[in-house]
Write a structure and sequence with these properties.
Strand content: 25-35%
Distance between the termini: 29 Å
Structural class: alpha+beta
Number of strands: 34
Number of helices: 14
Shape: globular
Strand order of the largest sheet: 11-18-17-14-13-12-19
Number of domains: 5
Helix content: 25-40%
Length: about 675
């Protein structure tokens, strides 16, 4: 399922008119090549795709430049640089002539595959299968593929989650060779490794995680020092000890680059033998770790830092709920060190926001599922001081590691390193938001980056509990750039850090593994600069984005599955987005979003889109639907295959409502 670098027959074209970009095929079947740095995409008609699939990195020849009417450039795909995806889900169709075709389930204009009868691997006519692209020769009418798996599923929801993962190019399982390699790993602590590591096994150490967590990748140790300071260790599972560069385990982890968290399952980056056993910092077990250790005063002043490989022994496994209760009651197991850590964390948090970090916080919604994965309730997870305790010490470790590496030079050159960067807000997005916030009485200082961050924090503080809170928080988040991995450091704007990386979750993120490897090379004074670091960073960012899209798709499916039980019923909702073709509304009780089409509003009035005001305004009645407004909606359609909810606006003046709410449970969430 890895990306393949391929070539295809090229047409004779002028190099001046050939550009490189990503082909995206819309639901209508029309294609658009997105070229980095170019504002307008290049239109490609279906008969000009060549042998490219949606998502492929391609070269496009612009043969019809845009005219004066402002139309798009039109082009023809002349070369495929890299395939985005090689595995696809669809239905097997074997006709009377014993010829098999694989019919895509995608609506992205994908051609059917021809599959030779000896490549069916036991699949039968009508089976839902995963087919792998093999080749597409010059004279072939259709690409050739092979069946790699029949999609066995216990129910429709299970099948949908598997399809989401395959569509995101995430393998559903590890190969036998990968599983054998994981099973063969040594699980005992060796004398040789003991000599290489600092021993923390006699120091109080514990983990704090969600109640249902199975992999514990970080632990905290704490002890008092004779000089009056505290020694606090942030200990991270040493995945790089087991997953070595170039190994079959490394290739499998890099291919995924991240774990994917769907509502009813985790698709892990590493086999459970590693993630849940060897590297999970389970209580009462000796474990290899990579650590950042700090001497800290009672005023949160960092007096000394140390980074290196260690051995720890976790004394206890806490849940967030247990730690939160200890913080609130000031009682419980190890309550004194927990209260001390919390006080230090809250002080660091306060200083971080004072120095330019932005205090965006959003509720995390999770579904309660029955034993078959069907949603039966909604949980709203919130961030409490117990989460902030872990978050602040993880941020401290990540920042410290990045600062340390940034100072190391080899032949006066910086070491290639996977920084986690976050650019400042784009002015084109920021200015409309500032103008919109001003309508509610909130002013922004645009003098410099720090002034903008302070303005955001002042707004978030002042808006809390007010009717406009939801809309301004959501729109504020949308002004922000997306954080990515890159070897070209520009700092992390949202956190207010000049240097930042991901060091604390190597079980579920590949960049953290890369960070550990670079650190060890520096410690060993044997740095081998990785010339492919930027390529690996881009791959990790791409996989992270694919995982986020899969997670959104999974959540949306469960929303539709959940609301399907409430067709015809009315709910309180908040307008969560506005466009020229309608508006989106999110139910207050369940946080489930659906579309109210402008067609369904036409009987009431003709509505026009006011982009600057994030609203639809009736031309006759002047009725306004603005983002953040509270309304009532009726659930009228729930399409699982399209993962789409359709709502109707309920005019409260007509007196015909059928309101019904479902209870919401509040739980806590782990944030890093």
């Amino acid at each position: 399922m890895s990306k393949k670098k391929i070539s295809s027959p090229q047409k004779k074209t002028s190099k001046a008119n050939v550009l490189q970009g990503t082909l995206e095929i819309s639901r209508s079947g029309m294609g658009f090549v997105i070229v980095p740095g170019q504002e307008t995409d290049i239109l490609v008609k279906p008969n000009n795709f060549g042998k490219a699939f949606s998502g492929d990195l391609v070269q496009v020849h612009v043969d019809k430049p845009a005219g004066r009417g402002g139309k798009r450039d039109e082009g023809v795909i002349v070369k495929i640089i890299e395939r985005k995806q090689t595995d696809f889900i669809g239905t097997l169709d074997i006709n009377n002539n014993k010829i098999a075709f694989f019919v895509h389930g995608s609506d992205k204009g994908m051609p059917d595959f021809f599959i030779p009868m000896d490549k069916l691997n036991g699949a039968q006519n009508g089976d839902r299968v995963i087919a792998r692209f093999v080749r597409w020769e010059k004279d072939d009418r259709k690409p050739q593929g092979e069946v790699v798996a029949v999609m066995n599923a216990k129910n429709e929801g299970d099948l949908a989650m598997k399809e989401i993962l395959v569509d995101g190019n995430f393998p559903l399982q590890f190969t036998d060779d990968v599983m054998k390699a994981a099973a063969a790993l040594e699980d005992r602590i060796t004398r040789e490794e003991e000599r290489k590591r600092k021993d923390f096994r006699d120091i109080l150490t514990f983990t704090i995680d969600p109640v249902d967590a199975k992999d514990f990748d970080d632990a905290i140790s704490i002890r008092n020092l004779d000089n009056g300071n505290y020694e606090i260790g942030v200990h991270i599972a040493d995945v790089s000890h087991f997953v070595t560069p170039g190994s079959i385990l490394d290739k499998a982890a890099y291919e995924r680059a991240t774990s994917v968290y769907l509502p009813d399952r985790v698709n892990p980056m590493l086999p459970e033998r590693i993630s849940n056993e060897l590297c999970s910092l389970r209580p009462n077990e000796d474990k290899y770790t990579f650590s950042a250790v700090f001497q800290i005063s009672n005023k949160s002043e960092i007096k000394h830092k140390w980074i290196g490989r260690t051995i720890i022994h976790s004394n206890h496994r806490f849940t967030y709920e247990e730690v939160q209760q200890t913080i609130e009651t000031k009682d419980g197991l190890h309550f004194k060190p927990i209260l001390l850590l919390n006080n230090l964390a809250q002080h660091m948090r306060k200083e971080r926001f004072k120095n330019g970090a932005i205090n965006f916080s959003s509720q995390e919604v999770r579904f309660q599922l029955d034993e078959d994965g069907k949603p039966i309730g909604v949980m709203v997870k919130e961030s409490f001081e117990a989460h902030q305790l872990i978050e602040e010490f993880m941020l401290l470790a990540n920042r410290t590691v990045a600062e340390y590496v940034s100072k190391i030079k080899i032949n006066k050159e910086a070491i290639p390193f996977p920084y986690r960067i976050h650019d400042e807000p784009n002015e084109e997005k920021l200015l409309p938001f500032v103008s919109f916030a001003k309508k509610f009485g909130y002013k922004f200082d645009l003098k410099d980056e720090k002034a903008v961050a302070n303005s955001f924090n002042n707004l978030l503080k002042e808006v809390h509990g007010k009717p406009e809170q939801h809309v301004l928080e959501q729109l504020g988040i949308r002004t922000m750039a997306k954080a990515i991995y890159t070897s070209e450091n520009i700092g992390h704007y949202g956190l207010g850090f000049e240097f930042y990386c991901h060091f604390t979750s190597p079980i579920r993120r590949y960049p953290d593994v890369m960070v550990h490897r670079v650190l060890q090379e520096i410690i060993d004074k044997n740095v081998k600069p990785d010339k492919k670091m930027e390529e690996k960073c881009k791959h990790s960012s791409d996989r992270e984005r694919a995982a986020m899209e899969a997670e959104r798709a999974g959540n949306k499916y469960k929303q539709v599955e959940f609301m399907k039980e409430y067709l015809g019923e009315d709910f309180d909702a908040v307008i969560s987005g506005v466009s020229s073709f309608g508006f989106w509304a999110e139910t207050v009780a369940h946080k489930c979003e659906g579309l109210v089409s402008i067609r369904d509003l036409s009987d009431f009035d003709d509505f026009l889109h006011n982009e600057a005001d994030y609203s639809l305004i009736g031309s006759r009645t002047k009725t306004k639907f603005r983002m953040g407004d509270k309304i009532k909606i009726k659930v009228v359609a729930a399409n699982l295959s399209k993962r789409q909810l359709d709502y109707h606006w309920v005019n409260e003046n007509d007196g015909n409502t059928n309101k019904k709410s479902k209870p919401v449970n509040k739980k806590s969430a782990k944030k890093k």
